[in-house]
arginase (Spinacia oleracea), 338 residues
Amino acid sequence: MQKIARRGIHHMQTLNAAKIPADLIERGQNRVIDASLTLIRERAKLKGELVRALGGAKASSSLLGVPLGHNSSFLQGPAFAPPRIREAIWCGSTNATTEGGKELNDPRVLTDVGDVPVQEIRDCGVDDDRLMKIISDSVKLVMEEEPLRPLVLGGDHSISYPVVRAVSEKLGGPIDILHLDAHPDIYHEFEGNKYSHASSFARIMEGGYARRLLQVGIRSINKEGREQGKKFGVEQYEMRTFSRDRDYLENLKLGEGVKGVYISIDVDCLDPAFAPGVSHIEPGGLSFRDVLNILHNLQADIVAADVVEFNPQRDTVDGMTAMVAAKLVRELTAKMSK
C-alpha cells in the first residue's frame, strides 16, 4: 500500500532525475488534467440530458467516484472503494428499490458519471493543491447539469474538503453539514499534512463553506478535537450521550437560510459489528438503523453528499461492509432525489 501511495511522488522524482524540462512536464500534466475533466464533463452532460428528456425530476443523484487514499493516516485501502460500492449497489442479492420505494434503475433517481482518475493524475506528478482543485472542478461539472446532484464515493475523508468547497462555491454561499463519523476530523493538520483525512473539516470551516457543522457518532476525540470544535462552533454529538440526544438527532431540520445541506458519512460512524471493513475500528458506534433513522427523518434540501472511508482490504466478512456502504448510498440517493 505504501508503494501505491507514493507512486506519483516517485514518478515525479524520476522525471526530475532524467532532467525532463519543467515546461514539458507541465504540458503533460495539463493534458492529463484536461482529458480527465473532459471525461467527467461529457458523462455529466449525457446523463443530464437523459434525465431532462425523461422529465419530472427536480433533483437526481449522480455518483462520482474519487478513489483517493494517500491522505489516510493509517491505511490506504479506501482508494479501492468506489468500484466495490458500485458492484454492491447492483448486487443480485437484493433489488433496486430503496426502503421508501424509489427505483434506482430510474435515471431520474440515480445516474453515474464515473471516477476522477486520481492515480493517473498523481502519476504525472500533480501535487495535492492541484489535485484538490481538480476534484472541486469535477464536482462543479456535475452540478452544472441540472438536475444532477453529486453523491461522491470515496476514498478517504480528505475528499470532503474539495467537494464541499465546490458545492459552496457553485451555490454561492455556505451550507449546513451533517457529518456522521467516529472522529471529528478537525485537526489543524495531522502529521504535517494539511490535507490529511483527519483535517478535512478544519479546512472546510476555515474556508467559510459551512454555516453549521453537526458531527454525530463521535467516540474518538482528544483535547485538540474538542478545542477545534469550540473554535469553529461545531455541534459535536458524542456516542457517550447518544441515548440522551437520540430524539433530537432523529428529527433534525437543517438548511433554513442557507444554500442547502451536505451529508458526509464516514462508514466508521457505525459500530464495527455492522461495518468491520474500515481502516480505524472504533467500538461503541451507531447501529445501521440509527443512521437510517437520522437520514430518513431529516428535513432538508440535500444538495450533495459523500460516503467515505470504506476499506475493501479490511472487509473480511464476504463483502458485508461493501453492502453496508452500498445501502447507505442507496438510501442517500432516495433522500436526495425528488
